[in-house]
Every structure is written in C-alpha cells, then in structure tokens.
Amino acid sequence: MPHFPVLRWGEPYKSLDVETVVHFATGETLGEVSQANGGIIARDMRKAHRAREVLREIPIPELLKRLSSAADKFLNDELPAGDGTQTPQQYVTCQSATTGLPEHMCRANMEKLHFVLTNLEQILNALTRNLNPKILSDGYALEDDIMRSRQALTPALGMVLPSNSPGTHGLWLPVIALQIGLVLKPGPQEPWTPYRMAEAFFQSGIPREAIALYPGGIEAGRAVVEHVPRKMIFGSIQTVEQYRGDESVQVHGPGYSKILIGEDMVDQWEDYLDILVDSVVINGGRSCINCSGIWAPRHTKEIAEAMGERMGKIAPLPPDDPDAPLAAFTIKQQAEGINTLIENGIKEDGIEDVAARYRDGERHIVEERCAYLRPTLLHCPSPEMTMANTEYMFPFASVVECPQNEMLDRIGGTLVGTILSNDESFRRKAVDAMHIDRLNLGPIPTFKIDWLQPHEGNIIEFLFRERALQIA
Amino acid sequence: MTPTMIDSPSTQRIDEAKEALDAHVRDMAQWHFSPETGCPYWLEWAGNADWDPASEITCYADLLRFPNFDGELLRTLPHEQWVPKAYGDRPFHIFETGGTTGMPKQRIQWDDYKIDYELFSETLDPEAFPRGGYWLMVGPTGPRRLRLSIEHLANHMGCSCYFVDLDPRWVKKVIANKKMDQAKDYMKHVIDQALLILQNRTVNALFTTPRLLETLSEHVSIPETGIKGVFCGGTEMSPQYTRFLIEEVLENKTKLVPTYGNTLMGLACSRPLTADDNYSITYHAPQPRAAMRVVDPDNPDALIEYDQWGRVELTTLTKEFFMPRFLERDEAIRRHPCEQFPWDGVGDVRPFRAMQETIVEGVY
C-alpha cells in the first residue's frame, strides 16, 4: 500500500496523522495519505515567493516543452506514486475505485488532461491574446513601441480540490507555464491526479520547489484559502455565496447548465435529441457542464417523453465495464438524501419523473458500500416550480415549459447556456445575459468545451493584473 | 543502568505510589467526613448514606462506593456548602471553569492552587525554566485560577510575570456564531499585545495556548526572543500538532511542556516528549492530591484496558476539596506508569466526542 506524503514545496513530509483511501465497493485500502495541519501550510507559504523565483529561471517556452513532455509521462509512464510506483492503468483503477467513476470515464479524463497540457501554448496564446510571454516573466516589455505590463498577483495558486470530479484538474494545468507555483489540497478520495501530475512535472524538469501538495482535512483547506493570495475552490451554492465579492477566490460551484430552445426551432426538437440527452448523461452527469435544464416554449411533454425513454433505460454497470454509464455514490447517504429531495420535489402538482416510466426498478439502488441514482428526467410545466432549476450529481434534468420571451429572465445563473435558435433578437439577448457564463449559439452540447476560451473567468486575469509602467 | 524518566517503573515503585495514594485517600476521607473538619455538603451526604465513609474508605479503590460526582452542584449550591469546617471564616478565592455553556462551575480555594503549582515546579527542567528573570502568560485570566497560579509559580521560581489576557468565552461565542472575522481580530489584538511585550522586555518563559503559540511564532522566532521554555495547555494537542510545535514553532530549541489541568484538578504533568513516542503526550495526575482514571464511557465503574480510549475520570483529594470520580468532558488513551510518575497516565487527551454539548475548540 503506497504512502503519499505531504509535499512541502516538493519535499516529502510524512505526518503522524494519516488517512486511508479505500475502494468504494470492496472497502480495500488503496493508499495511505499524510495529513497536513494548517500551521504547516501557513509556515510554508512564507516561502511561496521561491516557487515563482525558480519558475522564472526557466523561460516560458521551455516550460511549455517540459509540460508537454509531462503530459506524455502522465498518460503513458509508470511514475512514482508516494513511496511506490503507479502505471497508467493502476492510476485509472485507483481513481475509479475511490471516486466511483467508471474506468472508461477516468481514462477519458486522463486524455483530456493530456490534451490540455500538450496544447498549452495555444491555450495560453488564446487566453492572453498572444501576449509576449516576456511580459508575464519580466513584468513588462515593449510591443510595437507600446509598453505593456502585467504584474503577478500571487507567487502561487491555491486549489482546494474536490473528490468527485477529476475533470476539474484541467483548470490548474496552465499555471506552472505562467511561472506561478501550485499549492494543491487534494480531495480526500482523489489524491491520485495531483500526485501523478506533480510527479510527471518533476520527471520532466519542473522544479520541485514550485509545487506543494497538502492533503488534509477542513483545516488544511481553510489554511490554503487563508494564506495563498489567489485560490480556486469548489463547492456548493452556499460556498459560492460565502465568497461572493472576494476577488482573491474563484469559486466553482454548481453549473445549472441549460439548453434553451427558441420558438423558431422547437418544432424540430427531434433533430436535437442526441445533443439533449448526451448533454445530460455524459460523464455520468457529474460535471458542472452537464445539462440540468432544457427550456422550451412548447412540445415539452414530447421532449421529456423522448428523453425519458432513452434515459430511463440507463442502468449501472460494473466500473470496469467499458460501457458503464453511471458513477457510484461512494457516500451512500448522499444518494439517499438526493433521492429524498427529488421524491419530495415531484410531489408538486404537474411534475412527473418521465424516466421512471421506462426504468425497470427504483431510481435509488443501494449496494453494500455504495449507491447509484439512475437517470431522472422531470417534466415541469412551469418555470415557477422548484424542480425547474435544480441540479444533482448524476444524470438529472428538467424539461421546462416557458415562453421564449421569459426564458432569459427566469433561468438564473447558468454556467453553460446553449441557445438553439436562429432568432437574432433572442441570440442578442443571450449574448448580453450576464448570468450565462459560457454561451453556445447553435447545436453545441453543453459539455463540449473549447479550451481556447476562458472557463468561469480568465485565469490570466485572475493571476495577473494589467498596470501602467513607465521607464525613464 | 540508571532508569530514565520515561522507562517503565519497577513493581516496587508502583506499589509505593499506590500505597501513598491509599494512605492519602484514608486521610482525606477522615478529614472530609468528620464533623470537626468536613464541609456541610459531604457531612450531609454521609448522613443520608447507609455507610460511613470516614471509617469505611480505606483505599483509592474504595472510592468506587461513591457515584460519579455531579458537576452541576458546583454551579448551583451556595459556596458555604463546600467550606470545610477547619477553614472557619477564612475568606476564599472563587475560581471558575470554562463557562462557555451557561453558568460556570465554581470551586472555592484557599491555598490549593499554590500547593499544586509549587509541586508542579519540581517537575520543571531548570535549563528551560531557570530561576530568576521574567515570564509571560498569554491566555485566559479573568475568573480562572490560572492567572494567580502562574504568577505564584513564577514567583516561587524567583521570577516575575507579564500578563496578556484572553477571554475564551468571547472567542467561543464568536466562533459558535460563525463570526470568524471577529475571532481573527480578537486573536490579533491578543497577539499584538504579546509581541509588544516581547519586543520591549526580556522574557525567559512563556505560558500560552497552542494556537496562540503558533500564531506568535508566525511573527517572531520564539527561540530568538530568548524564551527557553513554553508551557502549553488548554486545548487538544494531537501527536502531529505537538511535533509541529516542537520541530517548527519552537525550532527544536525552546522546550515545550504540555500541561493539562483545570480548576477542579490542579495541574497534570506531561512525561518527557520524545520522537520515539511519536510525540504522543501522556499526562499524569498530581498524585496523591488528584488522581485520574480512564474508564469505560458506558460503564464508568470499569477501567478501560491499557492503550485503549476511554473517558477521563478525575478525583480531587485535598483538604480544601473532595471530589470523587468526576467524569471530565475529555477522552484519552489509558497509558502505563513511567519511572517519573509510577501511576497510570492519560494520553492524547481530546474532547469527549460523545458528549451532547457542542464543544467549540476555537482559534485560541
């Protein structure tokens, strides 16, 4: 059983407090993880400037090469894992075993991270609008006789990572290339990716002093938030509210991603059925970019019926099955709680779980050490209903009947909004809607992410500020 | 070879300690249950019992004949009920426990705190706590006996002491109300005062809480201030946290002496801390004036096995105060005796999780 130490700017530290990570279905212990107390993080952050210093000694183009090499190592090599080693397949198996995600989804996430790392140059060019990297390194440079300056707002980015969504690791991958250090607090059930990626970085020549890994409890998460000048955290809508207005924190909460069908295209809804269903069910419905609402001015019963028929038939398969469509809830009570909320929600007059009619059995499947929730598709005849704008961590969506001219006012915060309409006026209003973060105009599934565009804020703008600089 | 303080003691040492405790228990039973010396509460209690504690209590084990002491009595009964007749009209100190969950428990005292801390002084390493010089206490003063006790301890060791107050009742209240900004501001206010003293005066020894010590060290190097020894107590210290304090906060230079105590007991001593013990803290009661057992939470009459977790039971046995078998709001691992303290110890003390009261162990 491997032991994963705390990495204090690359230096392993075995703590006296350890936690184990266990297989969600068998209870087998898969690893032991040292736990950082908050004080350790507070003290180490005094040396955070060193992370930026060592990275600035390596030009950004060279860092990009090394990160590209790290991408291949991450995907293909047997790498150190704590005090042992880990093959790519072992990584996939372990991640699946502790997060509940089917192995093929873990593999897909792995490939996604590889893609991001190997395309970092393009991604950074897009996010910086082709800014000369020297400006980020040196703080300023002349471009076409114009002085341009960017000032790093932090020597390192803090990340308090979730356990249940390995895809989120893509967000921190560009940071090292920006010569900013990383302070990662892995999710308790998902230490695998931060450690494997850090090792891939080290093996490719990224200085160890640039990366700190602090597995630990709530106290460790708090310390990262308190002591790192810029940080990303993941949490519920309450967490989002808690940090609203705090520009040092970027909070990634629920997505409430939606597909809005306009008057002009709703009669052809059947042409888009694949996009509708895939947007809800792909990746086990676990992501913030999965669709949780389909809003249309009419035909909502028919849309719900067609989607419910496809989704209702989806049932859990073993995690190593290449077609496994659902992720397990490794905390059984969580599935039970969600199921109760849904059951209470659908008591409201007029709401129906259409998928239930096509499901052979209950939504909530309880196994010895885990649980599953089978896909659920509600029909809500009015946007007033509570369940019209709800999101859960499995394939769950509501088909909501709503006049087109009211949709944008009623959908609430929406991470990804896909507009199925050629009505220029509707599209223009969607472009102007401040509560839609990523906007897709046309038949684009909500989960289809263009990495050349910012996600919940531009990370360059989060880590650097533009300022005036004059030299006599 | 001369045994070290943490070696296992000989059977003879254990037997001698047990005999000393038994003899002290007999003396205290006679004192507290004799009309010439006892207090109204215990005399009345014995009057209602169908046995005579003064003559029938012959050893520590006999204290099992008493039920667990009801701490509520210290909140509700008039102080006069607890005045041993032998103390007559002599005015007393009133010391309070936490008080974070309503009316605090109050214990009256005359000289106990002085005696307890003088005895404690004998356990201190003179290199870390030299005679003469100045101490600083940063922690709860107010109605607790700690303030007077620390000052007396310092004076007893030829030192004088500076004080910075911290009101744990306020800290716990703001944390319970999730006003973390207020808690931080208050912490800063306390730390700023301590830093002011350290920047302007020479201090050799510090008494504070773990969190305050940690925060202080984020502003100054504790060893570089000249502080040679630190007493630390008040909240839970896990082995990892203790290691962190020794290795990083005190830079392996300033000596850490963990303390476990309260108004009801006195001050328990920690056996010397070593890396070999994985920095696990074990406290030993100041026998025979107080004794601790680690008992089965579901059957407090029964001791828990060694190296197992149980609830801490405290018995206080001084002429001023008799408190048999009080169940503390802490749990701990029952530890074997050691050469320095040849009686059971309590290890890795932490709040008793099963208690229904919500205990806030805050920033202080």
Characterize the structure shown.
The complex is a heterodimer of chains A (472) and B (364). Chain A is 34% helix and 22% strand. By secondary structure, chain A is of the alpha/beta class. In chain A, the strands form seven sheets. A seven-stranded mixed sheet of chain A has the order 17-20-21-16-15-22-23, sandwiched between helices. The model of chain A has no long low-confidence stretch (mean pLDDT 94). Chain B is α/β, with parallel strands linked by helices. Chain B has a single domain, classed as 3-Layer(aba) Sandwich (Rossmann fold), CATH 3.40.50. Chain B is globular. In chain B, strand 3, helix 6 and strand 4 form a beta-alpha-beta unit. Chains A and B meet through helix 1 of A and helix 10 of B.
**Cα distance spanning the termini of chain B:** 43 Å
Sequence of strands across the biggest β-sheet of chain B = 4-3-5-6-7-8-9-14-13-12-10-11
Count of distinct strands of chain B: 14
* Major sheet size, sense and barrel closure of chain B: 12 strands, mixed
Helix content, binned percent of chain B: 25-40%
By DSSP (H or I, 4+ residues per run), the number of helices of chain B equals: 10
Unreliable stretches of chain B: 354-364
Percent of residues in β-strands of chain A? 15-25%
CATH superfamily of chain B: ANL, N-terminal domain
Largest interface: A-B, 9 and 12 residues
CATH class placement of chain B: Alpha Beta
Return the CATH class of the largest domain in chain A. Alpha Beta
Indicate the overall shape of chain B: globular
